[in-house]
Amino acid sequence: MKGAVLTPVGRVVLIEEDGTLVRLSWSDEEAEGESPLLAEAAAQIAAYFDRRLTRFELPLALGSGRAALFHKALLAIPFGETRRYGELARGLGIPPQAVGRACGQNPLPILVPCHRVLGATGLGGFSAPGGIETKIALLRHEGALLI
Question: E strands of the chain, at which residues?
Fold first, then answer.
């Protein structure tokens, strides 16, 4: 099933499979059906952007093996805080470039907060439409970026 949510950083589409969210993407695709999970995800995303929610409580497909460990590390970064690529890399025993690639391939941005990961000397990238401007908007929303 596919549901759509309008957010301050654009329209996002959520895809649910077997009672788990598997993808969030910025898209104009039409919603295809409704489910309790998609409704709850939309409500939690709205609460996040209204600053009434700082941690999502949704069933998320985190992958397996290293991908799951990486996504869990992202989920451990608190609302309003950031980490550096190198810091995550050391904790996971992988190169910083691998952290950057994994952030760029995150299938559930916002929900799995890859926007909270910064480069050694700057913001790093962001794979959403609007790129770094969307990342800046999310970090400002969380109070993690004051520029």
Answer: 2-7, 10-17, 20-26, 83-84, 117-118
